[in-house]
Predict the structure of IS200/IS605 family transposase.
Amino acid sequence: MRRKFKSNNNVVYSCKYHVVWCPKYRRPVLKDGVDMRLKEILHEVARERGAEIIELEVMPDHVHLLVEVDPQFGIHRLVKSMKGRSSRILRQEFPWLRSRLPTLWTNSYFVATVGGAPLATLREYIEKQKHV
């Protein structure tokens, strides 16, 4: 399989990350329509920031994301944008989230570069999360 690279004005790159984050107190609130709306918001943010969501799965108490992002923009800025916008919009559109949680997301998240494992293996892992 040939490796695909992306580029901007001064960098040619292939920077893929596996990212996981949870709602505050790991409450299972990402359901009943929240999960679908969250996916829409994350795709919108990724598109605006020039990132590519390769795989995305929303579980009731956490989010798995496989994403490629420009190294000059950075994974931290992308995750911050995704969590910030989704928290604001979801708490506006689903008022019951405001009564259950002081904030939607925890401050922390997990991120790992995707270099050692084949991309297909990670994609399969994320896809199978719903069936665990």
Remarks:
- The helical segments are 34-49, 75-93, 96-100, 119-127.
- The mean pLDDT is 91.
